[in-house]
Amino acid sequence: MKRIVVLSGAGLSAESGLGTFRDVGGLWSQYDLADVATPEGFARDPALVHAFYDARRANMAGARPNAAHAALARLSGRDDVTLVTQNIDDLLERAGARSVIHMHGELSRALCAVCGHRWDAPPVMEPAAPCPACDAAATRPDVVWFGEMPYHMETIERALGDADLFVSIGTSGTVYPAAGFVEAARMAGAETLELNLEASGGRFDAVREGPASVVVPDWVAEVLGD
Fold this sequence. Notes:
By secondary structure, the protein is an alpha/beta fold. It is about 30% helix and about 20% strand. The longest helix has 16 residues. It starts with a strand and ends with a helix.
Protein backbone atom coordinates (compact mmCIF):
# COMPACT_ATOMS: atom_id res chain seq x y z
CA MET A 1 0.00 0.00 0.00
CA LYS A 2 1.26 3.46 -0.88
CA ARG A 3 1.99 5.87 1.95
CA ILE A 4 0.06 9.02 1.05
CA VAL A 5 0.44 12.55 2.39
CA VAL A 6 -2.40 14.92 1.52
CA LEU A 7 -2.06 18.68 1.93
CA SER A 8 -5.29 20.68 1.64
CA GLY A 9 -5.75 24.42 1.36
CA ALA A 10 -8.51 27.01 1.10
CA GLY A 11 -9.79 25.58 -2.20
CA LEU A 12 -11.02 22.51 -0.32
CA SER A 13 -13.52 24.58 1.68
CA ALA A 14 -14.36 27.30 -0.86
CA GLU A 15 -17.40 25.40 -2.14
CA SER A 16 -18.69 25.22 1.43
CA GLY A 17 -18.84 29.01 1.53
CA LEU A 18 -15.56 29.69 3.32
CA GLY A 19 -13.64 32.34 1.40
CA THR A 20 -9.98 32.36 0.42
CA PHE A 21 -7.47 35.19 0.76
CA ARG A 22 -8.01 36.03 -2.90
CA ASP A 23 -11.80 36.27 -2.96
CA VAL A 24 -12.90 39.73 -4.14
CA GLY A 25 -15.42 41.15 -1.68
CA GLY A 26 -14.93 38.30 0.79
CA LEU A 27 -14.28 38.57 4.50
CA TRP A 28 -10.51 38.65 4.10
CA SER A 29 -10.62 41.47 1.53
CA GLN A 30 -12.32 43.77 4.04
CA TYR A 31 -9.30 43.82 6.34
CA ASP A 32 -5.59 44.54 6.16
CA LEU A 33 -3.89 41.24 6.96
CA ALA A 34 -1.22 43.13 8.91
CA ASP A 35 -3.99 44.21 11.29
CA VAL A 36 -5.75 40.89 11.84
CA ALA A 37 -3.28 38.11 11.01
CA THR A 38 0.00 39.10 12.68
CA PRO A 39 1.20 39.15 16.30
CA GLU A 40 1.88 42.89 15.89
CA GLY A 41 -1.68 43.54 14.78
CA PHE A 42 -3.02 41.67 17.79
CA ALA A 43 -0.78 43.67 20.12
CA ARG A 44 -2.07 46.94 18.60
CA ASP A 45 -5.78 46.14 18.63
CA PRO A 46 -6.81 42.80 20.16
CA ALA A 47 -10.50 43.76 20.03
CA LEU A 48 -10.33 44.16 16.24
CA VAL A 49 -8.58 40.82 15.83
CA HIS A 50 -11.08 39.01 18.05
CA ALA A 51 -13.99 40.58 16.13
CA PHE A 52 -12.49 39.37 12.86
CA TYR A 53 -12.09 35.79 14.08
CA ASP A 54 -15.51 35.85 15.75
CA ALA A 55 -16.93 36.62 12.29
CA ARG A 56 -14.93 33.81 10.73
CA ARG A 57 -16.10 31.43 13.50
CA ALA A 58 -19.73 32.35 12.78
CA ASN A 59 -19.10 31.84 9.05
CA MET A 60 -17.64 28.39 9.80
CA ALA A 61 -20.58 27.42 12.02
CA GLY A 62 -22.97 28.09 9.15
CA ALA A 63 -20.92 26.12 6.61
CA ARG A 64 -21.31 22.44 5.78
CA PRO A 65 -18.70 19.92 4.61
CA ASN A 66 -18.78 19.32 0.86
CA ALA A 67 -18.14 16.18 -1.17
CA ALA A 68 -14.37 16.73 -1.08
CA HIS A 69 -14.33 16.76 2.73
CA ALA A 70 -16.43 13.59 2.78
CA ALA A 71 -14.09 11.85 0.36
CA LEU A 72 -11.00 12.71 2.40
CA ALA A 73 -12.80 11.55 5.53
CA ARG A 74 -13.24 8.13 3.86
CA LEU A 75 -9.57 8.11 2.91
CA SER A 76 -8.49 8.99 6.46
CA GLY A 77 -9.61 5.57 7.62
CA ARG A 78 -6.44 4.09 6.11
CA ASP A 79 -3.36 3.81 8.31
CA ASP A 80 -1.06 4.79 5.44
CA VAL A 81 -2.69 8.21 4.89
CA THR A 82 -1.61 11.46 6.58
CA LEU A 83 -4.01 14.40 6.25
CA VAL A 84 -2.39 17.82 6.65
CA THR A 85 -4.42 21.00 6.21
CA GLN A 86 -3.60 24.69 6.02
CA ASN A 87 -7.25 25.41 6.79
CA ILE A 88 -8.31 26.51 10.25
CA ASP A 89 -11.91 25.35 9.80
CA ASP A 90 -13.33 22.12 11.23
CA LEU A 91 -15.09 20.83 8.10
CA LEU A 92 -12.83 17.80 7.67
CA GLU A 93 -13.55 16.69 11.22
CA ARG A 94 -17.28 17.35 10.79
CA ALA A 95 -17.18 15.14 7.70
CA GLY A 96 -15.73 12.36 9.85
CA ALA A 97 -12.00 12.66 9.10
CA ARG A 98 -9.61 11.24 11.69
CA SER A 99 -6.27 12.58 12.93
CA VAL A 100 -6.19 15.78 10.84
CA ILE A 101 -2.96 17.75 11.28
CA HIS A 102 -3.84 21.47 11.42
CA MET A 103 -0.55 23.17 10.61
CA HIS A 104 -2.10 26.66 10.91
CA GLY A 105 -4.14 25.99 14.03
CA GLU A 106 -7.88 25.73 14.59
CA LEU A 107 -10.48 28.48 14.60
CA SER A 108 -12.56 26.54 17.10
CA ARG A 109 -9.79 26.68 19.73
CA ALA A 110 -8.41 29.39 22.00
CA LEU A 111 -4.82 29.82 23.20
CA CYS A 112 -3.28 31.55 26.20
CA ALA A 113 -0.33 33.63 25.03
CA VAL A 114 1.20 33.42 28.52
CA CYS A 115 1.07 29.75 29.56
CA GLY A 116 0.19 28.03 26.27
CA HIS A 117 -3.02 26.44 27.56
CA ARG A 118 -5.59 25.58 24.86
CA TRP A 119 -9.36 25.19 25.13
CA ASP A 120 -12.53 25.30 23.04
CA ALA A 121 -13.18 28.86 21.89
CA PRO A 122 -16.56 30.44 22.68
CA PRO A 123 -18.51 32.02 19.79
CA VAL A 124 -17.37 35.47 20.95
CA MET A 125 -13.91 36.03 22.43
CA GLU A 126 -12.96 39.04 24.57
CA PRO A 127 -9.46 40.56 24.97
CA ALA A 128 -9.89 40.63 28.76
CA ALA A 129 -11.14 37.04 29.05
CA PRO A 130 -8.98 35.13 31.56
CA CYS A 131 -7.16 31.93 30.73
CA PRO A 132 -8.88 28.97 32.45
CA ALA A 133 -5.47 27.64 33.53
CA CYS A 134 -3.43 30.66 34.68
CA ASP A 135 -6.04 33.45 34.80
CA ALA A 136 -3.96 35.76 32.59
CA ALA A 137 -5.88 38.13 30.32
CA ALA A 138 -3.96 36.89 27.29
CA THR A 139 -6.54 34.95 25.29
CA ARG A 140 -5.98 34.75 21.53
CA PRO A 141 -7.28 32.54 18.72
CA ASP A 142 -5.29 29.32 18.39
CA VAL A 143 -4.26 30.10 14.82
CA VAL A 144 -0.84 30.62 13.26
CA TRP A 145 -0.34 34.19 12.10
CA PHE A 146 2.08 35.50 9.51
CA GLY A 147 5.57 35.47 10.99
CA GLU A 148 4.81 32.55 13.32
CA MET A 149 6.01 28.96 12.96
CA PRO A 150 3.34 26.51 11.74
CA TYR A 151 2.42 23.67 14.08
CA HIS A 152 3.50 20.01 13.85
CA MET A 153 6.33 20.62 11.35
CA GLU A 154 8.47 17.72 12.59
CA THR A 155 5.57 15.28 12.16
CA ILE A 156 4.81 16.64 8.68
CA GLU A 157 8.45 16.49 7.58
CA ARG A 158 8.72 12.86 8.73
CA ALA A 159 5.58 11.95 6.81
CA LEU A 160 6.88 13.67 3.66
CA GLY A 161 10.17 11.81 3.96
CA ASP A 162 8.33 8.46 4.11
CA ALA A 163 5.70 9.24 1.47
CA ASP A 164 5.18 7.32 -1.75
CA LEU A 165 2.63 9.87 -2.98
CA PHE A 166 2.14 13.54 -2.10
CA VAL A 167 -1.17 15.15 -3.07
CA SER A 168 -1.84 18.89 -2.90
CA ILE A 169 -5.49 19.94 -2.91
CA GLY A 170 -6.81 23.46 -3.39
CA THR A 171 -3.73 25.42 -2.40
CA SER A 172 -1.87 28.11 -4.32
CA GLY A 173 1.53 26.75 -3.34
CA THR A 174 2.92 30.21 -2.65
CA VAL A 175 3.12 30.34 1.16
CA TYR A 176 6.07 28.66 2.86
CA PRO A 177 6.78 26.25 4.40
CA ALA A 178 3.84 24.43 2.75
CA ALA A 179 4.98 25.66 -0.66
CA GLY A 180 8.11 23.55 -0.21
CA PHE A 181 6.30 20.30 0.54
CA VAL A 182 6.10 19.16 -3.08
CA GLU A 183 9.87 19.54 -3.51
CA ALA A 184 10.56 17.76 -0.21
CA ALA A 185 8.35 14.88 -1.31
CA ARG A 186 10.02 14.71 -4.74
CA MET A 187 13.46 14.62 -3.15
CA ALA A 188 12.31 11.72 -0.98
CA GLY A 189 11.28 9.82 -4.12
CA ALA A 190 7.51 10.29 -3.88
CA GLU A 191 5.16 10.77 -6.79
CA THR A 192 3.36 14.13 -6.70
CA LEU A 193 -0.17 15.07 -7.74
CA GLU A 194 -2.04 18.38 -7.69
CA LEU A 195 -5.85 18.58 -7.49
CA ASN A 196 -6.87 22.20 -7.98
CA LEU A 197 -9.31 24.49 -9.70
CA GLU A 198 -6.36 25.64 -11.80
CA ALA A 199 -2.76 24.40 -11.91
CA SER A 200 -0.57 26.34 -9.47
CA GLY A 201 2.56 25.99 -11.59
CA GLY A 202 4.32 23.85 -9.00
CA ARG A 203 6.57 20.93 -9.93
CA PHE A 204 3.99 18.15 -9.82
CA ASP A 205 4.19 14.91 -11.79
CA ALA A 206 0.48 15.21 -12.64
CA VAL A 207 -2.27 17.82 -12.30
CA ARG A 208 -6.04 17.37 -12.34
CA GLU A 209 -8.02 20.59 -12.70
CA GLY A 210 -11.57 21.14 -11.53
CA PRO A 211 -13.71 21.91 -8.47
CA ALA A 212 -12.60 20.10 -5.32
CA SER A 213 -16.06 18.57 -4.93
CA VAL A 214 -15.51 16.76 -8.24
CA VAL A 215 -11.81 15.98 -8.59
CA VAL A 216 -11.19 14.92 -4.98
CA PRO A 217 -13.99 12.30 -4.79
CA ASP A 218 -12.95 10.96 -8.19
CA TRP A 219 -9.34 10.55 -7.05
CA VAL A 220 -10.30 9.01 -3.70
CA ALA A 221 -12.55 6.52 -5.48
CA GLU A 222 -9.57 5.43 -7.58
CA VAL A 223 -7.34 5.05 -4.52
CA LEU A 224 -9.95 3.02 -2.64
CA GLY A 225 -10.78 0.94 -5.69
CA ASP A 226 -14.45 1.94 -5.83
